[in-house]
């Protein structure tokens, strides 16, 4: 199988340079059976004994991306350090490695992923491995492999081992024919990016597995997520993170979207809070498997004006990237998240002024150093 090995090697090299934290290897297709996946008869695993507790045993895939490390920190405070395992194919930074359990996990290696679930008695799985919108458009075959084939592996393992599974979706799951202002939970979805297509696929497959196999599948459509402790990872909304880094380092920011491009956004603490809340919500409270969640909606111009209250000398220019702009123009301007607020009590904490102040409170020391220089 020299061709397969060469493809696998090439894909792995590509992933090492991406920000998604997802690994790829070529694996044989297995037949869907009652469990729902037929397991190879020669599969062998060793057992590890853990003390019983009321806390879930958690695995986070793609854990070195924007959300995984923060989610692990939140869950470890809630459920105990050793009950939450972070995984990725990349080498973690020292502070991540020593903060709690970390394990190598390639989401396209079905047998390895299944062994991790069995050996560590996983009960909750957060599946964050994905290529984001702009990166996905630059490498569609890789995005298809990571975002769709990897999802199939996770769904089968979660159904077989009765896991509670969380898979994030996105504003990118909607398209130019969807209502944009506001966008409801249930409406036409015809995205025009491989990222969006893969997320619609994830929503529908998760709902299907819920009704077909009883899988406890839960999903939130995230808006653009803004955080102080991560670098932009190839998403269309990443300008809203980049502006803070550029304001601090150079005092100049070049935006790749038009100044009046309105998109829903959220501070990372609200995002992580919503994720934990929907996972802890009683099953009988959930009227659907996938929910919109929202906090605020703003344009690059509105964000820049708020940032300039903290860094008045910031110079903002616009050099529109046609690919990203086309993606943004097909996405919602505002999310209708009334179902999440009604069913399980979702409520955000951060609006735009609080978001900007919080970002600069985290980055303030760096800002003062930059200004002194």
TrEMBL record:
Catalytic activity: L-threonine + NAD(+) = (2S)-2-amino-3-oxobutanoate + NADH + H(+)
Pfam families to which the protein is assigned, alphabetical: Epimerase
Residue ranges constituting the NAD-dependent epimerase/dehydratase domain according to the UniProt record: 58-293
EC id: 1.1.1.103
Gene Ontology molecular function: any one: L-threonine 3-dehydrogenase activity
Pathway: Amino-acid degradation; L-threonine degradation via oxydo-reductase pathway; glycine from L-threonine: step 1/2
Any one of the GO BP annotations: L-threonine catabolic process
Family: Belongs to the NAD(P)-dependent epimerase/dehydratase family.
Function: Catalyzes the NAD(+)-dependent oxidation of L-threonine to 2-amino-3-ketobutyrate, mediating L-threonine catabolism.
Protein's recorded name: L-threonine 3-dehydrogenase, mitochondrial
Biological source species: Phasianus colchicus (Common pheasant)
């Amino acid at each position: 199988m020299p061709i397969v090995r060469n493809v696998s090697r090439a894909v792995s090299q590509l992933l090492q340079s991406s920000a998604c934290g997802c690994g790829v290897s070529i694996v044989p297709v297995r037949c869907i059976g009652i469990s729902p996946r037929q397991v190879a008869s020669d599969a062998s695993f060793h057992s590890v004994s853990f003390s019983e507790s009321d806390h879930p045993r958690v695995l986070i895939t793609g854990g070195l991306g924007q959300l995984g490390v923060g989610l692990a920190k939140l869950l470890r405070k809630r459920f105990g350090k050793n009950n939450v395992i972070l995984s990725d194919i990349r080498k973690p930074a020292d502070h991540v490695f020593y903060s709690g359990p970390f394990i190598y996990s390639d989401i396209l290696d079905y047998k390895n992923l299944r062994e991790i679930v069995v050996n560590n008695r996983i009960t909750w799985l957060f599946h964050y491995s994905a290529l984001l919108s702009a990166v996905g458009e630059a490498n569609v075959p890789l995005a298809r492999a990571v975002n769709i084939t990897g999802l199939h592996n996770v769904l089968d393992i979660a159904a077989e081992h009765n896991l509670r599974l969380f898979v994030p979706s996105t504003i990118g799951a909607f398209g130019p024919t969807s209502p944009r202002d506001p966008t409801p939970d249930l409406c036409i979805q015809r995205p025009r990016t491989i990222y969006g297509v893969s997320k619609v696929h994830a929503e529908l497959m998760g709902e299907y597995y819920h009704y077909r196999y009883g899988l406890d599948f839960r999903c939130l459509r995230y808006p653009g997520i803004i955080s102080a402790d991560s670098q932009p990872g190839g998403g269309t909304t990443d300008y809203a993170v980049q502006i803070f880094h550029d304001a601090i380092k150079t005092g100049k920011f070049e935006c790749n979207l038009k100044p009046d491009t309105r998109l829903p956004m959220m501070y990372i603490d609200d995002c992580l809070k919503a994720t934990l809340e929907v996972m802890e919500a009683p099953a009988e409270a959930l009227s659907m498997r996938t929910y919109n969640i929202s906090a605020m909606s703003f344009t690059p111009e509105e964000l820049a004006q708020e940032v300039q209250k903290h860094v008045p000398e910031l110079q903002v220019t616009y050099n529109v990237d046609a690919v990203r702009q086309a993606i943004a123009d097909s996405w919602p301007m505002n999310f209708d998240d009334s179902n999440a607020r009604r069913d399980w009590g979702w409520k955000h904490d951060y609006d735009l002024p609080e978001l900007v102040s919080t970002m600069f409170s985290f980055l303030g020391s760096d800002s003062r150093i930059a200004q002194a220089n």
